[in-house]
């Protein structure tokens, strides 16, 4: 539970919860309120002065569906053994600062999760009702940042950044991969920065009745094939108010439905694509996607035309 700092602000109101707050430091030595402390997995983690050392230990201590929160202190939290098993339902993992309900897209959250284990995901979500917020997700080359299994329904990942600029370029590197039917899930207010031909920032396989909303996807260099992939088994996924901005050679297809097989797999609404995006929406078969108010941009000073409404999938 929370307590007051010397400034009169409540630590435990980040977020407001009836559960416990488990504090995790990014290194063995860390600083809170101007004082140096030592993090250890032998600590209880229930105070910012007694922080845990690893994210995995925090997940081992939380209790399902009682409002427990894992709070990542600023810095890079590196997983150095097997990927973290997020297997406890109803738990939130957040970074500081935390701004719930603002609708803001963070460009660079202070807390980052990554791994140094070759070709392994950072986290594997295997329980329902997990929230991840206000962290940078930095996958290792040729692996996913976060995987969701079929048990991870009602996942909420929001106000995060996916860092595709730090890992070495590989088409096998993914940001968030849905591997099973994690239905009723939301992925919103996400910023993605990419500088080459990585894999998809979001791969949606077997997911149903879920929402992808308010993504800012920025490509700064190179050629990127697909930013969001809608794959086999995806059903009734809403992709809404996303922007894809490309300053590199090209983004071949921003939303790729080549492997989709549902009728419909996706509802794509109110998305915007910059002029260097070759195709905003591509690969879907007949009746596999419904489009509404999606536009491909042009340089009006050069082309003397306005943005083009995307009405046909080729």
Question: What does this entry look like structurally?
Answer:
This protein has 314 residues and is mainly beta. The protein has one domain (73-309): Pectate Lyase C-like (3 Solenoid). 4% of the residues lie in helices and 40% in strands. It contains 2 helices and 27 strands. The protein has helices at residues 55-61, 300-303; strands at residues 21-24, 29-32, 35-38, 69-72, 75-79, 84-86, 92-95, 111-115, 123-125, 131-133, 135-137, 144-148, 156-164, 174-178, 186-194, 202-204, 211-219, 223-230, 237-240, 243-246, 250-256, 266-269, 272-273, 277-282, 289-292, 295-296, 308-309. The strands form 3 sheets. It has a 17-stranded mixed sheet that branches. Strands 6-9-12-14-16-18-21-24 form an 8-stranded parallel sheet. The longest helix is centred in the N-terminal third of the chain and has 7 residues, at 55-61. It starts with 20 loop residues before the first strand and ends in a 5-residue tail after the last strand.
Blueprint of the fold:
Elements: E1 21-24, E2 29-32, E3 35-38, H1 55-61, E4 69-72, E5 75-79, E6 84-86, E7 92-95, E8 111-115, E9 123-125, E10 131-133, E11 135-137, E12 144-148, E13 156-164, E14 174-178, E15 186-194, E16 202-204, E17 211-219, E18 223-230, E19 237-240, E20 243-246, E21 250-256, E22 266-269, E23 272-273, E24 277-282, E25 289-292, E26 295-296, H2 300-303, E27 308-309
Parallel strand pairs: 1-4, 4-7, 5-8, 6-9, 7-10, 8-11, 9-12, 10-13, 11-13, 12-14, 13-15, 14-16, 15-17, 16-18, 17-19, 17-20, 18-21, 19-22, 20-23, 21-24, 22-25, 23-26
Antiparallel strand pairs: 2-3, 26-27
